[in-house]
Design a protein that fits this description.
This protein has 379 residues and is mainly α. Helices cover 71% and strands 3% of the residues. The mean pLDDT is 81.
Length: 379
């Protein structure tokens, strides 16, 4: 009976929040190399502890049997408002000031609660979902997060961090730009010529099945050979390792959503609309550029949105072949068993993905023609 009362839309957030109670919440590290002394949620937040399960329970029950995005978002944001300032207060409550080289290391319980709050907030669309990100940025700029281990790692490599951030974004944008140049014409070709559809989709689907690290590795040998045999290519920047193989691999991975959405957007167009254009005397070329392609743009942009979000994450692996990016800090942290450095590399990637996703979502909704929103959402 209880589970029937819970809205299915709130289940991911409730499950993540429930799992957080069984994990350590935070740790106090006396210096960078020692293991942290872990604290559970009741130990870290004795005053706050009773409110978190109550909030999760209310999020599950008050949303009712029907999906209510507003209530879910409010509960997710309240959970977030308890969590983030509470985590900031750990620097005082756990006695960090007694350790000049110490830091606070956030553990699994915190990250599960954070994921829970975002899962609840994600059921409401729009720019309002950027508020949590802005709160983190504000606290960071005001200096309230200096005691966290990942912030101290950031301060140690601050100049390198910004250059790798720009490099990460540049790689992702260039890869998606290349995928747009190749993918949109390929999708149009597959739509216009049915005989081209099987080979086009076989190729882009096959690219998705190859593990990213394997594809990076497969490109090293042929590109190294070309670089060695043709010096002019080497002078142009072609190498077996570095940005060139990373850019090629990321472009290949970014193709599928763009090709698929381009093809689908043209395939689902209303025949009555096309017949009206033909009745006005439009030639096939005029019909494509003035009717078919403009109507397909929102769905093509949806494919670009998926591709850019996916590529921003995949670019992390490019650091393994010397392409740089934020993955440099992730893998350096793995080598040194420095969890805070790994988090320092991962958090900006997550924030970039959230920001890109929400901004493109707003853009797509603004340019989608009236009456086609439901059709595109189903697609």
């Amino acid at each position: 009976m209880f589970f029937r009362m819970i809205n299915k839309a709130s289940l991911p957030g409730v499950i993540l929040g429930g799992a957080a109670f069984f994990l350590p919440f935070a740790g106090l590290k006396e210096n960078r190399v020692v293991d942290p002394r872990l604290f559970s949620l009741p130990e870290a937040f004795p005053g706050l502890y009773p409110f978190l399960p109550a909030l999760l329970l209310l999020a599950a029950l008050l949303s009712g049997r029907r999906k209510n995005a507003g209530i879910l978002w409010v509960h997710g944001f309240l959970l977030y408002l308890l969590l983030i300032p509470g985590a900031v207060s750990l620097q005082t409550s756990l006695g960090l000031e007694a350790y000049p080289y110490g830091s606070i290391s956030l553990s699994g319980g915190f990250w599960f609660f954070l994921a829970s709050s975002f899962a609840l907030m994600n059921y409401r669309k729009g720019v309002i979902n950027l508020l949590p990100v802005l709160l983190i940025v504000l606290l960071f700029q005001l200096g309230y997060m200096e005691g966290f281990g990942f912030i101290r790692e950031f301060r140690n490599v601050e100049s390198r961090f910004y250059s790798e951030l720009i490099n990460h974004l540049t790689l992702a944008l260039r890869a998606v730009g290349g995928a747009v140049i190749l993918g949109v014409p390929a999708g149009i070709l597959a739509w216009k010529k049915s005989s081209f559809s099987p080979p086009v989709f076989t190729f882009v689907n096959a690219m998705q099945t190859i593990p990213s690290l394997a594809l990076f590795g497969l490109l090293i040998a042929p590109l190294a050979y070309l670089s060695r045999e043709y010096p002019v290519l080497r002078e142009m920047g072609l190498r077996g390792v570095g940005r060139t193989p990373a850019l090629i691999a990321l472009t290949l991975y970014a193709l599928l959503p763009i090709v698929r959405n381009t093809y689908t957007s043209l395939k689902i167009l209303d025949r009555n609309t096309l017949d009206a254009g033909k009745g006005m005397g439009m030639t096939p070329r005029q019909l494509f550029w003035k009717v078919e392609f403009p109507l397909s743009i929102p769905l093509i942009l949806s494919g670009i949105r998926v591709s850019l979000v996916q590529t921003t994450g995949n670019t992390t692996v490019a650091a393994l072949i010397g392409a740089g990016g934020l993955g440099y800090f992730v893998f350096r942290g793995l080598e040194q068993a420095a969890v805070d450095m790994i988090i320092m590399g991962v958090i900006p990637i997550i924030l970039l993905v959230l920001l890109i996703d929400k901004l493109l979502e707003i853009l797509i909704r603004r340019i989608t023609p009236a009456g086609l929103e439901e059709l595109y959402d189903k697609t």
